[in-house]
Every structure is written in C-alpha cells, then in structure tokens.
Amino acid sequence: RTRFLETFDQLPPSGQGAVVVLNLDRFALINSALGHLVGDRLLNAISPRFRPVLPADGLVARLWGDEFVFLLPGAERASATQFGNAVLAILQEPVTLDGQRLDVGGSLGIALYPGDGVAGVTLLQRAQSAMYTAKRRQSGVAFASEMGAPPAHEQLSLIGEMREALVRNEFLLYYQPKLDLHSQKIVAAEALIRWRHPQRGLVPPLQFIPFAEQTGFIREITPWVLETVAAQTMQWRKDGLCIVPSINFSARDLLNPGLVEHMRGVLASYGLPADGLCIEITESALMEDPELALTHLCALAELGVKLSIDDYGVGQSSLAYLKTLPVHELKIDQTFVRSIADSPKNAAIVRSTISLCHELGLTVVAEGVETAEDLDWLVRNACDTAQGYGLARPMPAQDLPAWIAAYRAKTGAVS
Q1: Coil vs helix vs strand at 215
Q2: What confidence score (pLDDT) does residue 105 get?
Q3: Euclidean distance between the first and final Cα of the chain, in Å?
Q4: How much is the mean pLDDT over the chain?
Q5: If DSSP codes are grouped into helix, strand and coil, which group holds residue 96?
Q6: Residue 145: what pLDDT?
Q7: Coil, strand or helix at 226
Q8: For a tag site, which of 76, 104, 243, 263 has the least CB within 10 Å?
Q9: Phi-psi region of 179 (alpha: psi -120 to 50; beta: other; left: phi over 0)
Q10: Which secondary-structure segment (H or E) carries 85?
C-alpha cells in the first residue's frame, strides 16, 4: 500500500489513468481447508501471472491478505476494462500445488482518475468499494463511477481522522439492554460504538461506520470493539453481573480470512466462554459472499459463539435460507415492531415470524420497542426478547450495572 501511494504521488498531476483493486474469491476457503502455508504458496503462484498483462509503466501491490491493487497510468475506461478482463481470465486458470488443483476467481473494482478522484487514498477507497459491489453482483468488474458521487469533503475528512481516533482512544461503547420477556430479566445488551470527536463532539455511527466499511477501516475498528467488549464482559462477571453482549459484524468483518482465529484468540485471552458472546450479522452481509459467509458462520458456531441475524425483514433474502444457517437468534427489524399493537399487518408479519422461528429452534428479538402496549403484545405472542427506547436507550458501559440494579428493584426480577 505504501509503495502504491508513493508511486501514485510521483505521477504528473495532469495525467489520467486507473486504479484497479482485485480481491480473490474462495481464498479464505482454501486457507481454512488446507492451512495458511498453502494459502501463502497460492498467492506466490498467482502473483507472477499478472506481470504479462501489466503495462510497462504499471504497478501491482499487495494490499493485505488476498487483495491486490494495480496502477495503470494513462489508462481510460476501455483499456482498464480490457485489463480487468485479462486478470479475470488469468484467474480462471487453476493452480496446482502438491498435485492438488485449486480453483480461484476474483472480483475487481476500477476507479479512473481524475474523474473519480485525484488523491491516491481516495481512488484506492473508491476502487475497493467498487470491488465489493462487483463481488456482491458477481459481475467480475465494477466501476467506481457506478457507485454514485464520491463522499463529501467533510466525510473524507472523517475517514482520514478515524485511524487517529483509534490511536487516541476517542471511540467508546454504549450498551442497550435486552429484556427476556419470559423471565422479565435483563439477560443481554447490544454494544454500540460511538465516536467522541475533540472538535465535532459525539459523532453518530451513521456518519462514520458506512465509510469505515467502504474503506476497509472497519477491519481495524471491529477487533477493537471485540476486545473491548470481551474485557468489559469479564469485568462485569467478576462483579457478579452476567449478561451476554452482542457485537455487530459487517460484511467485511464476516468475510475476513482471519476472523475465526482472531475470535478464538480473544476468547482465550480474556477467558470468556464462547457462549458469553453474541455476533449480530445483517442479511446484506450474508448475501455479499454466501459461500464464505456460511463457512465462517459454521466455524464460529463450532466455537460456541451465539449468532444472530440482525434487521431481519428489510433485506432481499427469504425465510427459506434460515434453515441452512447455523444461527441461534433472529432480530425482527424495528419497522415491523413499532406500533405493532395498532398495526394488524405488522402484527401478522411478526406473529408468523415468531412462530416460524420457534419451529426452527430460533429465539426471537424484537428491536425498536417503544411503548408498553407493544411490549405487552410481544409478551402475549411469545416473543423471547425485547430491545428498544421503550425499555432503555443505549448508555455508557459504566452506567449499565446501576441501571440493571434499578430495573431489578423496580420490577422485582432477579437479573
């Protein structure tokens, strides 16, 4: 990455060209099945194949893992497309290691300069975003120009400040309690990241998390969240408070080749039992690369980590895929839960979803509960867990134990 950015900065400012990001398909599956040493040998075998199609003044660099970037000075859309197709053709040729045939493919994102940006970092970010679109569409190649306008200047500034924020400990976690509707106990809490910016104040997640995902920086934020939650949970357990926290994983987190090993290491490091942690995954994250997502979910389930489908009902998938996933819980999106006591259609959707999930052995969380009437409806219709402003707003970690104690005193429930 450093070599790429240094080379780009030396190009004539008035020139044109293309930045192409490549991510290999099925690489994580090969790593998981055959080991990292075979994965490294595969990368070493594939990399030299790019040289014949790379222009004389071009550059190829490895960004991380199975992701590469190509710099094509002077290229325009047609020649960049031709180059992308040539790379995909190369990847169609299998690699044989120790007599075993390994088939890989790839997805490419292309950003053209100066049209898609003039800074190397910006072009790299936009090409990566386009690459994930190509992977999701299974189209092979996608252009940054198809992704809409680039982020505004203020957003780009935030992107640049996120790494410094992590170093300066500006990120913090809030926790929103979850109520078990059968026992009326607080049994869990969702960890939600916040950014306390020194000048901007408290920055809402929607203003920085989408760009952290687009740029790949989410892969640095999520490990921090995971370790912070693990440490906090163990401290709570030592203090006599036993709740299961949940963490949100993005598509990039779920498809990270090192995800399972990192999870295993965090659990061992903090002495946290695997079933003391819940991972929430959105439907869109599952659809990005279903095969790899399923592989990682199965591995996490084997560890004993609790898995939950978040925001259910707003994605494009159907109930049918639930039977193939090793998940334990489903969260019904708040758009169906709000005013459920007054909306017959929402009530019908939620009631049928609860029934089906119970038939499949899944527990159900209703998120976005705002009124006592909606909470009563959920109890009557056998929903398992509730979460929302009607119960409690997200709060700093240090405030959660006192809130739970006050709730227990008010309701008489022992949490």
Answers
A1: helix
A2: 83
A3: 49
A4: 86
A5: strand
A6: 85
A7: helix
A8: 76
A9: beta
A10: helix 77-91
